[in-house]
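Q&A FORM
Asked by: J.P.
Topic: structure of Aerotolerance regulator N-terminal domain-containing protein

PROVIDED:
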Amino acid sequence: MLTFTNPSLLPLLALLVPLAIHLWNRRPGREVAVGSLRWLQAGANRRLRNLRLEQWPLLLLRLLLLAGLVGALAGPAWRPRRTLGRGQILVAPALAGSPALAAERPRLDSLRRRGYERRWLAPGLPRISQTASRADSLGMPADSILALDHLANTPDFYAERIRLAADSLAGQPLLALTPATMRGNGGTRRPLPAGVTWRLLPLAAQATWLQAATSTADSLHLLLGQGTERQLTYRLARVARPQPGARLAVAGLPPLRYQAATATQAARLAALGPVPEPAVPVRPAPLRVWVYAPAAQAAEARPLRAALRAAALGLPGPLALTVAPTLPDTAQAPDWLFWLADAPVPARWRGAVRRGLRLWQFPAGAGRADTSHLTQPQLAAPVAVWRRAASPAPGAQPLWRDGLGRPVLTATPLGQGTYYQLATRLLPAWSELAASPDLPALLLEVLHPAFDAAGQQRLAAHDPRRLDPGQVLPAAGATARRPAPAFGPPLDLRPWLVLAGLLLFGLERGLAARTAATPSMVAS
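REPLIED BY: S.T.
REPLY: Here is the structure written out as tokens.
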């Protein structure tokens, strides 16, 4: 396809200039005798009426020379059309060995006979060998396929993977097969290019995985996640604490290996499946929480103690809660310290934060009047906030926000611990938090670390909940914008036009010199 980088063809109007000059500067008409004015006037009139082309080869060369100059200024380029390849079948590695993919085998074999190629929907789009997609005798995919799925696991972006594949395989019809699970189907989805067919296939009806673990002196408390196509549930399992390096068998889970704590990391449970998975840290239990509440804050400590006890029902292990007007020994620092006193936090406890303490400080002073509402997903109804403290320090991460987007609870990582700062208090004059039935759920989201970034990744890797295809695929009859035909890299034609212009210029000069040397016939 011919394109122009500077698409301005108005200079082609300059071709009219040499044409007009050529028509006007034709060879003189027949000479007449001087004195015969009537014949002289008639000759002039015939000159205007009988304009005709003469020396047209020279005129044609000059017009071509000028047209070549105009074309070179327009920047012509030739983009050859790519030869369309055969169709492609893109299979998500998570479908390898699944019954849903086996049910699609007749359709895929039919497409292969028509010339379609099979590729994994993974980085690089590797081709699928003849034996790679077959399940072994236990109905499980090969280790290499599981490893491929592990490396290609970028949750929430199956749609973007398909778009990237369509760009890499431009102009080829694509059939994409992905699991109909919440894993990999999050985020926003733009319309797919024309020629792309996306099908969602169901995976296993249920799954069980280890979500979190805590330990006591003689046992391990395991939080097991169980999911079906419709819902997720969690249950607690207690097993004897194994020796370091020993295997642990739990119903529904692959074998686990217990790794004891070291000076640099906590104890861990590592899965011994065909593909290595991130080990689950084993946190010490019970969770030790100390609420420092002098006598002046005793009224505020009561609703906090009740909310913490209610939140303990969702913890994977027991809760060791202490509410006292004195501070604990720094040598046996708790996991959490709630600071309700108006006095500033001593330096020794601020230093304990860097060694792993999680310090939650309530605001000091009278605060300032304010009217807003705390809005969190855990709240059945917004919670009013009537007084608040000054803004938190820069760099703090907001955990709770009000309806105006201002932080109510912030977290600042310090070393191995975290410093939490609440902008309001659990007093009726400050907020409705103390009377809210959702306060335990709010505290549980902060106390329970099972669903931090690593916990969310574990959930996303095993979540079997099924999506309705209508939630992902475009509606019936919806058509995407047809993409422009795929072309190869442009070839610049300006050097060729310059070379042709030089040749035409030489021909024009030679023909002009030859015409000038030819004597003209003059009528007597």
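FOLLOW-UP: The chain has three domains: 2-80+491-517, 88-203+466-471, 287-434.
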